[in-house]
Amino acid sequence: MAAYSAETPVLDTYQVVVSAFTDFLTVAIHTILYERDIYPRASFLAARRFNCPVRQSRHPKVCQWIQDAVSAVEVEMLKCALSTVSLVLHAPPPSSAPVERYVFSTAAFPLVPPSELLTPFTGKAPPTSDLPEQFRATIAKLSMLSSTLSPLPPDCSFTLVVELRDDADVRPPIRADTPWIAAEPGLQKQRIRPDDAEKEDERQTGIRKGKDLGGVKTTPVRNVESGAFVLEMWVEEGHAKFEL
After folding, report:
1. Are the beta carbons of 192 and 183 closer than 8 angstroms?
2. Is the pLDDT of residue 195 over 70?
3. What angle do CA 127, 133, 136 make, to 5 degrees?
4. CA of 52: how far to CAs of 3, 45, 55, 162, 237, in Å?
5. Lowest mean pLDDT among 51-55, 67-71, 154-158, 192-196
6. Cβ-contact 106, 20 below 8 angstroms
7. pLDDT surpassing 60 at residue 174
8. Which of 170, 203, 220, 238 holds its CA 20 to 30 A away from the CA of 85?
9. Cα distance between residue 235 and residue 118, in whole Å
10. Of 89, 213, 100, 242, nearest to 156 (Cα)?
11. Cis before residue 194, ω within 30 degrees of 0?
12. Residues in CB range of 16: below 8 A, 6 or more apart
């Protein structure tokens, strides 16, 4: 089993796959906060990750929040419990409605029993992956989004939202000993009976999406694929963004 290396990752176990994802997620969050002017740009410093220039908040509390949030995501990822992780940008009060949603879909990640997190994947050992190159390209794409997305109002806030897999044995991590709380109803999916369906897709899937899921406009970012690492990314611009 190879230890995780950001520059030359060998994706031979599920734990390494999760480590690669959380490493990239951390950099992506800092990048989005910088590019969408959630904090003053002067509060970010220039750094390097994946052998490319990136931006990182220099504020200790912001860095600690991101570190704690990503660590909480990692715990659930190691349980194979998550289908998506989303960085949600909210309008300033009193609305506080979601205006942009940056979605990281991990639905195609493998399902691995807890006892096999460190067990090498079957088949011969994979070669060193090209994840760093793909991560660089994705960060570059995120850095260009400000030129294609309409501006945000001042004083927006943000949060991290996770969506659980639909598997019956996946339990919500909302307990007193975890940092998670239930998302607002507009960012949730609800199981419904066929008789309660109002749309054809609800009738077919048995699921009703919250009003803030999907948004008015969706912009693909990039798909990242290397061995067991299969990540899809996109941005949703919410109804509230165009009503401000």
Report:
1. no
2. no
3. 150
4. 22, 14, 10, 28, 28
5. 192-196
6. no
7. no
8. 203
9. 33
10. 89
11. no
12. 1, 2, 3, 4, 9, 10
Task: Work out the mean pLDDT of the chain and round it to a whole number.
Answer: 83
The token duo for 130 is 């090209």
Decide which of 3 and 28 is more confident: 28
pLDDT at 182: 54
Which helix (H) or strand (E) segment holds residue 214: the answer is none
Burial class, 123, CB count within 10 angstroms (exposed 0-12 / middle 13-18 / buried 19+): exposed
Split at pLDDT 50, 70, 90, the class of 127 is low
Q: Which residue has the tokens 């949600």?
A: 88
Token match 């990540």: residue? 231
Strand boundaries in the chain, DSSP class E: 44-49, 52-57, 82-90, 98-105, 157-164, 189-191, 207-209, 217-226, 229-237
DSSP-based three-state secondary structure for 45: strand
List all residues 6 or more positions away from 113 whose beta carbon is below 8 Å from its beta carbon. none
Confidence check: pLDDT of 197 > 90: no
Both tokens assigned to 126: 């994979």
